[in-house]
Design goal:
160 residues; alpha/beta; Rossmann fold; 2 domains; 6 helices; 16% strand; elongated
Length: 160
């Protein structure tokens, strides 16, 4: 699908089926509210999409036959290409909020005081890092470790 679909100014919420877990984590990394649990059945995905007004992302054409929900089936089987497709189809490039959502649970990530998390991170990270963030959902702690530059590079590559 090459045309963009009109949306309101607010970024849409998504729900991904069992086939798109990697896409879900990457959309969260980019700041897009994305539900993913690999145990959800099609009927539950449809119910959640209807209730929360979410867009279903799926590789399963059957789930899209339900005309009471909005959905999209990425053409590519590769997650980076799927991200590019979703960004393009839903015209989302201007709505990216990198590192604002937890890739694990989709919770909001907020800055926290180093002293409040120092005992919860590795001694090396606590010694060398000054800035920390915590997920409001699962309480996971984030910092700009060695993985940070890899993720920034990935982000630049995806937006090419």
């Amino acid at each position: 699908m090459s045309d963009t679909l009109p949306l309101s100014n607010a970024a849409p919420g998504f729900i991904c089926d069992v086939h798109l877990g990697k896409l879900a984590r990457r959309l969260r990394l980019l700041g897009f509210d994305t539900i993913y649990r690999n145990v959800l059945e099609d009927e539950e995905i449809i119910r959640i999409a209807r209730t929360d007004q979410r867009i279903i992302l799926t590789r399963d054409g059957e789930i899209l036959s339900n005309k009471t929900t909005r959905g999209y089936r990425p053409d590519s089987i590769f997650s980076d290409e799927q991200v590019r497709e979703v960004l393009s189809v839903f015209n989302l490039r201007g709505q990216i909020r990198l590192f604002s959502l937890c890739i694990k649970c989709n919770g909001e990530i907020i800055p926290v005081d180093k002293d409040s998390v120092i005992v919860l991170v590795s001694p090396r990270s606590g010694q060398f890092m000054e800035h920390f963030w915590r997920c409001q959902g699962c309480r996971k702690i984030y910092w700009q470790g060695s993985h940070y530059e890899k993720l920034r590079k990935w982000f630049g590559d995806v937006l090419k």
